[in-house]
Amino acid sequence: MDDTTALPLDAETKVSERPADHEAELRLWLRLFTCTTLIEGEIRRRLRDTFDVTLPRFDLMAQLDKAPGGMTLGELSKRMMVSNGNVTGLAERLATQGLLERRASPTDRRAQFVSLTPEGRKTFRTMARTHENWIAELFAGLGRDDTEKLMTLLARAKASARKAVTAGEK
Amino acid sequence: MDDTTALPLDAETKVSERPADHEAELRLWLRLFTCTTLIEGEIRRRLRDTFDVTLPRFDLMAQLDKAPGGMTLGELSKRMMVSNGNVTGLAERLATQGLLERRASPTDRRAQFVSLTPEGRKTFRTMARTHENWIAELFAGLGRDDTEKLMTLLARAKASARKAVTAGEK
DNA sequence: CCTATATATTTTAGGCTTAAAGTATTTGCG
DNA sequence: CGCAAATACTTTAAGCCTAAAATATATAGG
Prior knowledge:
By secondary structure, chain A is mainly alpha-helical. Chain A has a domain at 41-151: Arc Repressor Mutant, subunit A, CATH 1.10.10.10. The first copy, chain A, is 62% helix and 7% strand. Chain A has six helices and three strands; from the N terminus they run ααβααββαα. Chain A has helices spanning 23-51, 55-65, 73-80, 84-96, 118-138, 144-167; strands at residues 71-72, 100-104, 112-116. In chain A, strands 1-3-2 form a three-stranded antiparallel sheet. In chain A, strand 2 (100-104) and strand 3 form a beta hairpin. Chain A starts with 22 loop residues before the first helix and ends with a helix. The relative contact order of chain A is 0.09. The interface between A and B is large, with 55 and 55 residues. Chain A binds a DNA duplex through helix 3 and helix 4.
C-alpha cells in the first residue's frame, strides 16, 4: 500500500483522452485507509495484549457504558453500525464472560435489554482510561491546529461520502 | 458512533484534577474511524453488488496488476499488510475462479509466484475503472484545496502513529 | 376478532482475519 | 559436509462480519 508514488504530471494530456482521471481522490482514499488501518491495528494489538479483549467487544461495552439503563440489541446494532446477527454473537460472548447481562423487555417479548454488569462497568472504565492515553500517544505528533483542521476536513469528507451513499439509496 | 457530542468546556478544571484529558484526540480518532468505515462499507457493497467480488480479492488483484511478472505470496503479504495465512486463502479462492495462476519458483522450492491470468487482468481493469469513479463520487464534495490539505494532514497523522508504533517495538 | 404486515432477534452459510503451530526448504557457519 | 537457524508457506482454531432465511411477537386495518 504505497501512496508515496509521484503523480504523473501530464498536464499536456487532453481531458478527452483521459476522461476519468481521479488520481488525487484515489490517493486520498488510500492514505485515509492506510492511516486508519495502522492505528486500528495497533489499538487491537494493545487491547489484546494488555486486556485480552477484542476491539468489537470494547466498542460494544463503550456503547453500554454511555447508557446506564441499558438498551435493546437493535439499538446497539444501530449505534455500532453493524448487523443484528453480529451483536447477537458479541453480546453472547460478553455475557459468558460475566461482563454483560440481559433482561427481557417488560413491554415487548421479542426484545431484550442488555447492560454492563458492575464488573463489566469496572473493567470497561479501566480499559477506557488506558485506551484514551494510547490514542493521545498515537496522535502526539499532531499539533492542536492540525487536530482541529483534521476534524473539520474529515467532517466534510464524511458529509460528502454520506451524500453519495444516500443518493444511491433512493 | 456519534462524534457530534458537545465538548465539556471546563476550562476552569485544574490540570492536576484531570491529568489525562485527551478528549480532542479521542474525538479525532472516532471521526477518522467512522469516516473510513463509511466509505469502506460503501465500496464493499458496490463491489459485491456490481461485480460480485470482495474488497480483499480486489485489493489482491490490484497488487498483482502493478506487478506484471507476478510475485511471491510473501511479497504479496507484505504489500497488503496482512498475514501469510490470509493471502494463502485469498489466492486459493482467486485461483479457483480462474483469475489468478500460480507457478513454482525456479530457484526456491518453498516459494511460489502468483500472477493474474489474462482473464483476471481484464476483469480487474474493468473493475478498477469503475472503482476509481466511485471514489471520486464519494469525495466529490471536497474541493481541490481540501483534498490537498487532507493529504498533508493524514501524512502527518500517519507519521505520528508510525512513530508511536515503532517506539513500542524496541 | 383476524389477518397482513412490520419488527426484534436468532440462525445459517460463507468469507475474512489473525496468531500459533506445523511442514518443507534454504542458508549460514563451524 | 552437517546441522542449526531462518524462511516460505500452509494449517488450525477462534473470532468477527454479513446477507438472507427463519422464528416469534407486535401492530394496524378491516
